[in-house]
Amino acid sequence: MELYDKTALEIGRMIKNKDISCREAAKAYIENIKAKDGELNSFVTVLEEEGLKQADEVQKRLDLGEELSPLAGVPMAIKDNICTKDVLTSCSSKMLYNFKPPYNACAVEKIEAAGAVVLGKTNMDEFAMGGSTETSYYGATKNPYDYERVPGGSSGGSAAAVGAGLVPYALGSDTGGSIRQPCSFCGVSGIKPTYGGVSRYGLVAFASSLDQIGPIGKDVRDCAEILSVISGHDRRDSTSVKGFEYDFSDSFDGSVKGLKIGIPTNFYGEGLNEDVKTSVLGAAKLLKDMGAELYEFEMPVVDYAVPAYYIIACAEASSNLSRYDGIKYGYRSNEGESLLDVFVNSRSEGFGMEVKRRIMLGSFVLSSGYYDAYYKKGLQTRALIKKSFNEAFEKCDMIISPVAPTTAFKIGENITDPLKMYLGDIYTVAVNLAGIPAVSVPCGFDGKGLPVGLQLIGQTFSEAKLVKAAYAYQQNTDWHKRAFEKMKGGSL
Amino acid sequence: MILDIKLIEYLEELSRLKLSDEEKEKVKKDLSGILSYVDSLNELDTTDVEPMSHPFDFTNNFRKDEVKPSFDRELILKNAPKKKDGCFQVPKTVE
Fold it and tell me: What is the ipTM of this complex?
């Protein structure tokens, strides 16, 4: 059975109507994984037996008349930095090459309670540090559009798996663009939720004040459904927000009439690929034709988001990753006599180069003598960026921007130049610094036939409004469907 | 900001990492490049700007101090590279 072109909600309906069983759905996707993932390398772990068993259990619950979510029985995958009980959660690092958590992340508990069928864990940049999924201990994931190119990162495995039709949806995490940018490179949709919207309990920490778990799917309708399931207050995450629930009931009328959309003109200047610029501004024009109002203004301080982000993210990472010592779990070096030797050797052998670089950068900006000039300056810049967004959202409901300055680049092209790689995060990191939500959707193709993505950025907890605009856009375009049509023709 | 090897070695120590000479040179070059770019922040006037360490303005979020069952000892030790008598095992630390 061919299901790769169906959305998660369509498959959920087919299961509910008994057109297919949960096992049939799982089997169809396991076949796709087996056929394609040898080359694509989007999975670290494939759960064939466990997935089929879980499918049968969900089927039993449905047959007994249990009310489950519209996603019940639909196969999916989980990024490998989200803890899954007794299933390898490696963060694509040698450091956690054998780590099987004794518990599930909150988002995993919630999605499984809703009837998800987990088919595996997806590849990523090591500890989510990267924008290309090339820093993985398990080798680079390929872009489904062009196997010589990267899928983006760090949730590159999740986005490539959805983009190639290996699962209808997946969970990712976004610290500085790690959901949105791979979505843009792989032609799929994703949401980086408001900070505090989804519990981080069981998400392996990279930068705790920036990390959020979020959905990656074929369209924004699916993403909204997934976000409804995984969000909500959780006492095990002290930064999880109380008393808020997403309500998407008004998000699917297909209208953008009266919505005020801001265009920060400095986002469209130097360094932005012309094809990307044309596609994103074309989308803005379409939204205007559909009834939205466009406003142009400048947000100059956002030009400083990348340096501020790398100071803050690396500082937090250097602290968070100090837990990896070779004692309690994960990789332990056999070399060395003393306790200190065990720490140093385990860390030096267990971490890859990008992780080491970021830990050392973090140690530097936090070290005495440099703290004020770097860490404090980064936090002050963050405050100015937040203020700039607050001012923008007094003028408009949301901002439209590119997700990344380019489309997918070639494997190996940027990996030797970390600064060049970091500059690719120019449009995404400010959103994490401000703790606000953004939706990423496909909006065209470049001259090489590679997907282009746009993001809609909104005020804290305005996801319903962002989804409304993105949904209306997807009702009037078919960029998000093109890949799956190509697959039908056998050309992808 | 250009870093010298002495500073790189200090950062190794702070980070509990040991790099090869070749890696040290690479990190020195990479971090110097990154920090030179980061120094562009000095163009921004941040006088009297309150540093923002977190997206939301809150300090502590305490829960009630209640006794609750935690993970089983065996379960937690399952992932330990070395264990002995129900404990994590480490090299001898006191003479």
Answer: 0.96
